Amino acid sequence: MKTWARIWLLLRQTAMTVLACVWLSPSIANSAADSLDEARAAYQHQKYEQALKFLDTVIGSGVGPPGALELRIRTRLKLGQTDKAVEDYLRWADRRGADDTVLLRELTIQVIGAAISDMREQMRGAAVTALKEMGGAEVLLLEKALADQSGLVRALAVEGLTRHGHADRSKRLRELLHDPAALVRVAVLRALGESGNRGLIPEIEPFLRDEQPRVKAAAGAALVALGRSEALPGVLELVKHPKPDERASVLSILGHLKDNRVAPSLFGALSDREAAVRATAAGLLAERKEVGAVKALTSLLKDPVPLVRGIAATGLSRLQGAKAASLIEPLLHETVPVVRAEVAAALLPFNPASAEPVLHEAMNSSDPGVRSAVAKHLGQAGTPAIPYLLDLLQDQTPRPRISAIRALGHVGTIKHVAVLRPILGDPDVAVRVTAAGAIGRLLNRGG
To answer: What pLDDT sits at residue 8?
Structure first.
């Protein structure tokens, strides 16, 4: 009898538990729904801290009812809790199997924006570079970077605003005409020259007397771009400056002008005694597609300096495509690994059988600089480069990953957003902001 009594008691307790669950489950569901409604109301009234408390109660360690996790992502973005917003978004996107492009774009901007105030110059530089890469970035963030303590970051911000067509409308940018750093003054002058605003000519003219040769060259180039063609002969003389770094800088500045009078100086610089000057001129001749550039670059394939030979090979592939393959293929046996990688990347679209072994060798190099270089050069190889870049995304060192991410942002398609998305949670700041820039670029391009 005692045994039957115990069994009966156990059955009764189990039944009561089941009934309790049945009775309470609507109550729990209603409570969750009420909390979610309260969270939505708090969010609408911009009471984000309050909304977050309700949402944390509803979601717990799971995902909560439909709409709860998405609302918490938006709430955390409003509160500037970028890392937690990324964590929630990655979980939410994986669960739904697709991205919300509007929300993801907002998230990428905030990932980059959080790094704009980083104490490390390298991270701030990576953030501004990412904004430039996006091709439709937040002007306010770039304006903020114009006041950065680093001249390099200020110059990058100027370039970003120029790319987005805001140069002549930015009062702060124009104030940087008097920046103490020459590279910033050069960037501003180029921006003003590309603006097409001839009303800026009186502001630019005094910089023809700047103490820095590269600033003088930038002023002359800006004036020529705005229709003052008589300014060019004077600044072309700066190509003969005694310091090689100034000669290279002046060539870089003048080489982007759409003016045929620049070409003779570029061809002349191919025989400069400094390799950096020859390399700069070779790259610009290929970029400009100058008549006679193929012959000139072909002769540079025998330059005594590997750097120059590599740039000449890349330039020839840009000018002639598959026709250049037989000329540059011997450089796959160069002694310098970076040059071999550069040539292999240039050959990949035309002669993959020859390029692939060298690419794999570079990708497995013990030197992260070589792995980074091959990723960078693959960014010029188009669609055939994608499998290699996807492999390089797994590199254990930030630098090669950064180069691969940036390159994938250029040669990838919208489907690669899903590949880049998890990298928004990378522990390295520069890696995740570069991923944000690449994602933003692919989203803006839409293909």
So the answer is: 53
Angle (CA) 301 302 305, round 5°: 95
Give the separation between CA 95 and CA 228, rounded to whole angstroms: 59
Q: What is the reported pLDDT for 389?
A: 97
Instruction: Report CA-CA distances (Å) from 377 to 66, 260, 336, 390, 403.
Output: 45, 29, 15, 14, 9
Q: Using only the alpha carbons of the chain, give its radius of gyration.
A: 29
Q: What is the pTM of this model?
A: 0.86
Instruction: Provide the terminal-to-terminal Cα distance of the chain, rounded to the nearest Å.
Output: 77
- Cβ–Cβ under 8 Å, residues 395 and 374: no
Positions in the chain short of pLDDT 70:
1-33, 135-137, 166, 168, 447
- The rounded mean pLDDT for the chain is 89
- Predicted pLDDT at 172: 87
E strands present in 163-297:
none
SS3 labels along 377-412: HHCCCCHHHHHHHHHHCCCCCHHHHHHHHHHHHHHC
CB 398 within 8 A of CB 430: yes
**51 closest CA partner among 78, 88, 17, 19:** 78
> What gap in Å lies between CA 130 and CA 378, rounded to an integer?
19
Q: Is the dihedral of CA 158, 172, 202, 166 positive or negative?
A: positive
| Tokens 């193929």, residue located | 294
Specify the DSSP element, H or E, that contains 274.
Answer: none
For the record, the structure tokens of 147 come out as 């006041």
In this predicted structure, what is the pLDDT of residue 394?
A: 94
Q: Of 178, 168, 255, 175, nearest to 220 (Cα)?
A: 255
Which ranges constitute the DSSP H helices of 226-272?
A: 232-236, 244-255, 263-269
- Cα–Cα distances in Å, from 25 out to 18, 35, 54, 56? 10, 15, 19, 19
- What does each C-alpha distance from 183 to 213, 218, 231 come to in angstroms? 11, 10, 21
pLDDT number for residue 69: 92
CB 305 within 8 A of CB 312: no
pLDDT of res. 9 = 55
